[in-house]
Design a protein that fits this description.
By secondary structure, this protein is an all-alpha fold. The chain is about 65% helix and about 0% strand. Bound molecules: protoporphyrin IX containing FE.
Length: about 375
C-alpha cells in the first residue's frame, strides 16, 4: 500500500539507491566478501567472464588491424589483403579478430540464455539484465558494421540487403513514425547507394561509437554484478558457495587461458573466410551483378532465414514482441518460476541452434533452390 502511494520521483530515487547502494561500493564488499554459488549450473557463471575475455581480444586485435586498414573504397580491400599476405603475423591477427568475434557472440548468446534460465535478472539485478541486453545489441552491431569493412562482394551486397530491410520496417509503422527507418538508413548509409560515405560511417561506428557505448554499458553491467554478487541461480534455498577471490577468479582466468589457446590455434590453422567461395571475396565491383550465395554472418541466420521464408510483417512483429519481452524480462517474468524460465530458455536455444545449422536445408526443402 505504502509503495503505491509513494510519489514516482521518490520511487525512482529509491530504485536507483537500491541498485547502487553507497555502502557496498568498496573493494571489501565487491571483491573480498563476494561469494559464488556452487551447484549444477555453476558452469554458467563463467560465461560472462568468457564474453569479457573475447571482447578484450577484439579490442587488442582491432587496434592492431587499425595500424594498416584503410577505410576507403579504393584501398580497403587491398589493405586487408596486405595485412593477410605481407604483414608479419597479420593473417593471424585478422583471423583472431574474426574467430574471436564469432566466439564472443556465441558466448554472449549462451550467457543470455543461462542468466535467463537462472532468473539472474530478478530484483535487484534489473540493471544488470538491461545493460546486458544493451551489450547484446552492441555486439550484433559490431558484427554488422565490421562485415562491410573488407569491401568485398559479399560484404557490400549483404550490407545493402541489411540496410534495405531496415528501411522496409517503415511500411508497418503509422504516420510520421513510418519515416524513421528511412532516416536511420540514410544516416548510416550516407549517400543514395552504399559507397564511400557508407564505408566511412560504418568504420566510425565500428571503431569509435560502438566501443564507447560498450564501455558505458559494460561499466554498468560489471559494477552491478560486483555490487549485488552472483544470483543464487537455482531454486534450492541453501546452496554451497566459494570465495570469489581468489578461487573463482583463478578458475575464471584458467578458462580464459584455455579459450586463448583454442582461438589462437584455430586462427593459426583456419582462415575465417576459408568457408566462403572465392568470388564472394573479390573486391566489390559496383558495375557487376550480385554473385550467388550472398548471406549475412551465421549469427544473423536466426532472423535471416525467417525473413526469407515468412512474410516480412510477421518477422518484424515477432522480433518486436520477443525483443521487447527480453528487454523487460525483469518485470514481465518477475513471478515466473525458474523451471518455466528454463523451459523457455531451452526452447529459445533450440530454435537458435536449429535455424542456424539447418536454416539453409529448411529453406531448400520448403522453397527449393538457395535463398
Ligand atoms: C559483451 C557482453 C557481456 C559481457 C562482457 C558480460 C559480462 C558479465 C560478467 C563478467 C558477469 C559475471 C559472471 C557471470 O555471471 O557470468 C555477468 C553477469 C551477468 N550478466 Fe553479463 N555480460 C555480457 C552480456 C550480457 C547479456 C547479453 C545479458 C542478458 C541480457 C547479461 C546478463 C547478465 C546477468 C543477469 C548477470 C548476473 C548473473 C548472476 O548474478 O548470476 N549479460 N556478465
Amino acid at each position: 500500500m505504502g509503495t503505491t502511494l509513494e510519489p514516482r520521483s521518490k520511487r525512482v530515487a529509491r530504485f536507483v539507491r537500491e541498485r547502487f547502494p553507497i555502502e557496498k561500493l568498496d573493494a571489501q564488499s565487491m571483491i573480498v566478501k563476494k561469494e559464488v554459488p556452487l551447484h549444477k549450473m555453476s558452469w554458467a557463471y563463467y560465461m560472462g567472464g568468457l564474453a569479457l575475455f573475447f571482447l578484450l581480444v577484439q579490442i587488442v586485435t582491432g587496434l592492431l588491424l587499425l595500424f594498416y586498414y584503410q577505410p576507403t573504397v579504393s584501398d580497403a580491400h587491398a589493405s586487408v589483403a596486405t595485412i593477410s599476405e605481407h604483414i608479419s603475423g597479420g593473417a593471424w591477427i585478422r583471423n583472431l579478430h574474426a574467430w574471436s568475434a564469432s566466439a564472443m557472440i556465441l558466448t554472449v548468446i549462451v550467457h543470455l540464455f543461462t542468466t535467463f534460465a537462472m532468473k539472474a535478472f530478478a530484483a535487484p539485478r534489473e540493471l544488470t539484465w538491461v545493460s546486458g541486453m544493451s551489450l547484446a545489441l552492441l555486439v550484433f552491431a559490431f558484427g554488422f558494421t565490421g562485415y562491410l569493412l573488407p569491401w568485398n562482394q559479399i560484404a557490400v551486397n549483404a550490407t545493402k540487403v541489411g540496410l534495405q530491410s531496415v528501411e522496409a520496417i517503415g511500411q508497418y509503422l503509422p504516420g510520421e513514425l513510418a519515416r524513421w527507418p528511412i532516416y536511420v538508413r540514410e544516416t548510416i548509409q550516407g549517400e543514395p547507394s552504399v559507397g564511400q560515405a557508407t564505408l566511412s560511417r560504418f568504420f566510425a561506428i565500428h571503431v569509435i561509437v560502438l566501443p564507447l557505448l560498450t564501455v558505458g554499458a559494460l561499466g554498468v553491467h560489471l559494477l552491478q554484478v560486483q555490487i549485488h554478487g552472483m544470483s543464487r541461480g537455482v531454486d534450492a534455498l541453501k546452496v554451497k558457495t566459494e570465495k570469489f577471490f581468489p578461487f573463482f577468479v583463478i578458475k575464471d582466468l584458467s578458462v580464459w587461458g584455455v579459450a586463448f589457446f583454442v582461438v589462437a590455434v584455430v586462427a593459426m590453422c583456419l582462415p575465417f573466410d576459408a568457408f566462403l567461395p572465392y568470388p564472394l571475396l573479390e573486391p566489390y565491383n559496383p558495375l557487376g551483378s550480385t554473385p550467388d550465395g550472398i548471406k549475412p554472418e551465421w549469427y544473423f541466420f536466426f532472423v535471416y532465414y525467417p525473413l526469407e521464408l515468412l512474410p516480412y510483417w510477421a518477422v518484424i512483429a515477432g522480433s518486436t514482441v520477443v525483443g521487447g519481452a527480453l528487454f523487460l524480462a525483469p518485470w514481465i517474468f518477475a513471478r515466473t518460476t525458474r523451471r518455466t524460465l528454463t523451459v523457455l530458455a531451452v526452447a529459445g536455444a533450440l530454435y537458435f541452434v536449429v535455424i542456424t545449422l539447418f536454416g539453409h536445408a529448411i529453406y531448400e526443402a520448403l522453397k527449393g533452390g538457395t535463398p
